[in-house]
Amino acid sequence: MIPSNRIRIGVDVGGTKLETIALDASGVEVFRRRVASPRRYQETLAAVCSLVESAERHTYTTDTVGIGIPGTISPATGLVKNANSTWLIGHPLDRDLESLLGKTIRIANDANCFTLSEATDGAGRDASVVFGVILGTGVGGGIAIDGKIVHGAQGIAGEWGHNALPGPGEDERPGPECYCGRQGCIETFLSEPGMEGDHESVMGTRLTSHEIVARALEGDEHAQATLDRYVDRLGRALAGVVNVLDPDVVVLGGGMSNIPNLAVMAQSAIKPHVFSDTVATRVVENVHGDSSGVRGAAWL
User: Fold this and answer.
1) What is the signed CA dihedral for 70, 88, 80, 16, rounded to 10 degrees?
2) What CATH topology corresponds to 4-112+292-299?
3) Do domains 4-112+292-299 and 125-286 have the same CATH topology?
4) In which band, very low, low, confident or very high, does the pLDDT at 3 lie, cut at 50, 70 and 90?
5) Could you report the per-residue pLDDT of 229-269, keeping only the tens digit for each?
6) Which CATH code fits 125-286?
7) Which of 157, 194, 203, 241 is 20 to 30 A off residue 130, Cα-Cα?
8) Residue whose C-alpha is closest to residue 12's, from 40, 36, 41, 39
9) Residue 11 has pLDDT above 60, yes or no
10) Can you say whether residue 261 is alpha, beta or left, with left for phi > 0 and alpha for psi between -120 and 50 degrees?
11) DSSP state, 26?
12) Is the pLDDT reported for residue 2 higher than 50?
């Protein structure tokens, strides 16, 4: 039997998957399970409870549970806000899960969980200030200082994805419409759908982000042009973060972070836009891959 006081359970509530993990005191994984995400609130509650109960049966633990969500709990209302999994918005997710599971629930933004994971035992483990980046179906971010997440007065610290793309050119204004109600958000350019929409708007052909990157690597000049625009926009957007936060490390995560050499390209792309004669901030790949979010939830 595994001692219960040495186990941390985390759940990542994503747009396409729900995943749970259990870590021992040293951060070693002792249990993992993944299922497809329901797209209704009540079904999400049931799926999360089922995953937690599975982890408990395996580890014999009844400790607290950390959960990462693609949004945040509003300090004003206690309800989920700013979630691109829109079926969570307006619900008291933490209170509902605490009632169903009968235990304390800690909830944080999924990008915060990713950042906490990488700052604890990942690519930013030796850094004082870490900015974690999610580049996936949406674009999010989190800030860790001395190994602790910064939540902010509104609970939105690090949410760079819903700022406007810096320095937009004529072909980037007013920008694509975003689910948040604005146009030209960083998310609409740097998410997977953002790259796909950009390629389609220029070429008239709809390809997945994976196909675009694969064709660029094969020498397709049109796909390479799309990738070049993506990297340029990433550099401008990250430079804005560096100019405000001045982090030691920027850790890239999410599906788009799997683009070969993206961290190296981004490192070069930020330099012309940073308000400094030198750029000491390192842009790096993550260590824990797509498990970083659920690991961070466990570290909550």
Assistant:
1) -10
2) Nucleotidyltransferase; domain 5 (3.30.420)
3) yes
4) very low
5) 999 999 999 999 999 999 999 999 999 999 999 999 999 99
6) 3.30.420.40
7) 194
8) 36
9) yes
10) left
11) T
12) no
